[in-house]
């Protein structure tokens, strides 16, 4: 054997098939045809078909063993794809790990004996070079190199180098293993597939960095439907708005509840709310529709109107004295006012405003508790995208603590002490107690879910609406005039003598300009996603084509593609307050793409049966907030030329995106 310079160490036949040699064998695949020269002179094994021949240069010994359990098929390197079975890849993993480790151990031992640090570093460099050579052998798995490696040599290595090296190699080997066997293959009739290069994550990092640009790129490459591997899930993105209705008709094959139920349990920490799981028989969606729409909405609007004025005028009174300008962050202001008002509206008050003798002190105590809840809410909300992605909350100690504190505040025993609970919370408490097997904290965490749903999108939507109004004097004038007209028509007077303005549902519905402004602000800031999970393998029939969908895959719509389409909305990145008004000043519903009228053109709240049940209340409370701002305050940006803050893309898919930074503004009471 030319090129083999080291004496051969005999290997018992069959040892590669599960022999119990007490010493570890290091195996590596090296590329090449025939037997290459190797400077280290280790034993060389020639792999031919399903046999391993063990050869040497001096003793001439040779043993042969079957490798049918190791190798299924070795393709020629010029074929388009290798086909490995599990045992073959497992052998390769051992080879890649231990071949270069052997050399490192040998040279590290020499370095230790000589006490020369330079030699240790040279050994590490040499081992790294050998590892690179080993990795190149993937392209032509023709030769096995085996070295004799005593286990005791491990203790000759510096522990820090060894641990880091082993973990690094483990990650690399897992990636290689996944790339060879774990990647999904596109089947006939399925949409184009984007696996991405990262195990489990797939395309998640690129998608998360800028979902809109990522989907536009894939749409241009693949067309109106394609599949992306994102965080362990295979998501079929449907981008043609004329095919949306086809998805809505697939109720027999698609489940809209499964994803939402799983996400809620994961994020908020309660048990599954899917009736099929047996924890509860409550139909949550029907509960929300019953208590957030119809007659129940009128009561919510009335309570919110009262609480907004209490928060704006009474609880903030110390800041508004002497008619001086107050400077704050706009997002901070919207967050405090909307959270405090919304909390009081849904979860009631600890004080009775009619006959409580210690009303003032109790109000201050109550406000302190709510503002503390707000801080816990913000701490929890910061890591909400990570929870949805599947990370356990125990990785985030402060957020976990914040969620638990919110749950403690919303325990049934504490809610029963409050007055004026909303119908939503009252009914949910009753159904929790009668239809579920949840413990007290799990019941409370279902209320935390209600709190989050009522605030997480409403707050940023309020911010964006007010920000665009402040940046557009024309829009501000039109909106202010509309509010004044409605108040004058109904003979509502604006004063600071304690008499509150009353705007009911009918009056709020008669504000088309505010409607258009809110819609336009939400069009520019929403990044919600509509999900459906396949119950079984089925064929999705679209307008001009059909595709096979596998069980448990997700079919998704990303409405931001629609909202930023220049064929539907001219100058899509520009705020136009009257974009959703027709020539008569009424709501506009005619939007076109390629000359065809669209049924789905505005979708910040989702669509179909899963459409947000609280959307009407959300829009009405933003209108109430704006009407009161126009009525009681002078308001302006500190810097009128300030640029629009960018959208925080980390929350893409969850609804209205938050601003990446706050904007300073100032306000003061009007002279009424």
UniProtKB/TrEMBL annotation:
InterPro entries on file: Cholesterol_7a_monooxygenase, CYP450_sterol_14alpha_dmase, Cyt_P450, Cyt_P450_CYP7A1-type, Cyt_P450_E_grp-IV, Cyt_P450_sf
Subcellular location: Endoplasmic reticulum membrane; Microsome membrane
Cofactor(s) this protein requires: heme
Keywords on record: Cholesterol metabolism, Coiled coil, Endoplasmic reticulum, Heme, Iron, Lipid metabolism, Membrane, Metal-binding, Microsome, Monooxygenase, Oxidoreductase, Steroid metabolism, Sterol metabolism, Transmembrane, Transmembrane helix
One biological process term in Gene Ontology: cholesterol homeostasis
Spans traversing the lipid bilayer: 86-105, 138-156, 162-181
Cellular component, GO, one term: endoplasmic reticulum membrane
Coiled coil start-end: 94-121
Residues the entry annotates as binding substrate: 266, 457
Gene3D superfamilies reported for this sequence: Cytochrome P450
Pfam families tied to this protein: p450 (PF00067)
This protein's pathway: Lipid metabolism; bile acid biosynthesis
PANTHER family: CYTOCHROME P450 7A1, CYTOCHROME P450 FAMILY 7
Protein known as: cholesterol 7alpha-monooxygenase
